[in-house]
Amino acid sequence: MGKQMTEMLKGTLEGIVLAILSVRPAYGYEITARLREQGFSDIAEGTIYALLVRIEQKGLVDVEKIPSEKGPPRKVYSLNAQGKRYLEEFWRAWNFLVERLEQLREGRR
Description:
Elements: H1 3-23, E1 26-27, H2 28-37, H3 45-57, E2 61-68, E3 71-79, H4 81-106
Helix pairs in contact: 1-4, 2-3
């Protein structure tokens, strides 16, 4: 992935992860796997875990510890009401940007 794409992802990855969690709860590795399925193959697991800590601290997700057969309990993240509102705002901002970028690309005002 190029530097420009990496920089763009930094600003949107939080919304992308919240969108994944809006479909169903997931733990860190599962979120990373879903991202890779969507073509985001260069995103490191460490990046996702750091992001999950941030969105947990912001109160956007609920966390449940689920026992794991292979080690310590897994932290399963689910989108809560505050996270849903945040995601709705993310999509509004995203749509605004997409519309303006399309206008610029097409040479319209």
